[in-house]
Amino acid sequence: MESEDIQELNGREMAVQSMSETDAWIFKSSSRRHKDDTEPLGVQDATDVSPLPARGSGCDRDAEEYNMKHPRRGVALIFNHEKFDRMPARTGSSKDCANLSHELKELGFEVRSHKDLSYVEMAAILNETSKEDHSLADCLMVVVMSHGDPGYLHTRDTVYQTQELWMRFTGNKCPSLIGKPKLFFIQACRGTQVDSGVAVDQVDGYTMSYMIPTHADILIAYSTVEGHYSWRNPRQGSWFIQALCQELSTNGRTRDLMTLLTFVCRRVAIDYQSFVPGDEGMDRKKQVPTITSMLTRLIYFR
User: Which of 97, 139, 174, 189 is catalytic?
Assistant: First the structure.
């Protein structure tokens, strides 16, 4: 249902054309992929670790910044799940996809967008990408926009464990990305809790081989806190992707990535508030993204 009512945004009244939605879906346990099910395509047991020297990582052992001067910026996979077999559509997600694709291309990424894939189709693309030679690339980015549940994400036809996104790209699975940033951005709910918010009162090299953990150099940015809804406007797109695009456009070439994401958290936390006047339990709610970082250096998209 759409509305022409007024939504308060960052202390100001602004006209909006539609009410807020969440990227949530209440899942039955029978709909999930169980441990005894067929193993996810191309994902080996997490204990299958072989020591690998960080050769060709693109930066010296003691470098404070990742080497972002390779011939290519790298691949950015965007999985935009808007329509589903047994769930409501995520209206507004196409706008998120278009805006983010534009900003990433401006930063030099080779953007590959995929829409409404099945699990098998998505897994095949992740497998193929992990087997590519990324030696001449700075980094890798994977973006997923979908319905979600704690620890799970949706494709068009089923659910899968969130960790399947990055398990194919750890150091022991994708050697050409060893020592390089692997960035994962997830726009999806992580539960059904809502955040009512609280008031804030204003007051006054290449020369040395070395070992690194297989999960080093990975960053995972979630649109919301674990256990909570993730909000999306049917006309403007999700709060998280809107804020991310704004920061990439404004500061993408001058600030390091962790600083950018701190500013994204600030934008989402302060500038956005849900507008669901017909439901007191969902109206005027807040959100803040969550950043999980195993990065070992700073990332600049200069």
Answer: 189
